[in-house]
Design a protein that fits this description.
The chain is 42% helix and 21% strand. The chain is α+β, with helices and mostly antiparallel strands. The chain folds into two domains: 100 residues, 2-Layer Sandwich (Double Stranded RNA Binding Domain), CATH 3.30.160; 37 residues, no CATH class. It has a four-stranded antiparallel β-sheet with strand order 3-2-1-4. A hairpin with a 2-residue loop joins strand 1 and strand 2. Helix 1 crosses helix 3. The longest helix is centred in the N-terminal third of the chain and has 21 residues. The two termini are 36 Å apart.
Length: 142
């Protein structure tokens, strides 16, 4: 199912800032318009995916005509934007995006000592699960 939310694209000196006013001013950015749009799709997909998984209430999107660049900028104390700024709808199929970017598994080849492999197999240890848990633990420790 396609999700559609309005976003404010503010042209700045080093690219674009992107704000989703309906989603508690969720924000991202990009150095080019193309990158900003790609980041907006990724940001929207990530927010909606996480909200769905956590059973959070997701606000309904506003109509494009109801979003005003100046009003949003004032809400954020952001007053330096130029005539290249605009409001646009950002669309994403959250389920398809998540399948490709958030849930897709990748195959990794690794080498371990033979004795360790044998001992793990004897105990029916799931190698993928152990590696995932170890990587998550290592990442969270940093």
């Amino acid at each position: 199912m396609l999700s559609v939310y309005p976003a404010c694209f503010y042209k700045e000196e080093n690219g674009y800032s992107v704000i989703f006013p309906d989603l508690n001013y969720l924000a991202t950015c990009g150095t080019t318009l193309e990158e900003a749009m790609n980041m907006a799709v990724d940001c929207l997909a990530g927010f909606l995916y996480s909200s769905q998984k956590d059973n959070d209430v997701i606000p309904s999107p506003s109509a494009l005509k109801d979003i005003n660049l100046t009003t949003v900028a004032k809400e954020l104390d952001f007053d330096s934007f130029n005539e290249d700024s605009f409001v646009n709808m950002v669309t994403v199929d959250v389920a398809a995006y998540a399948k490709e970017h958030f849930e897709k598994s990748v195959k990794k080849t690794l080498t371990i000592p033979a004795w360790l492999n044998k001992a793990a197999l004897e105990q029916n240890i799931n190698f993928s699960q152990v590696l995932q848990e170890a990587l998550i633990s290592k990442i969270q420790a940093k």
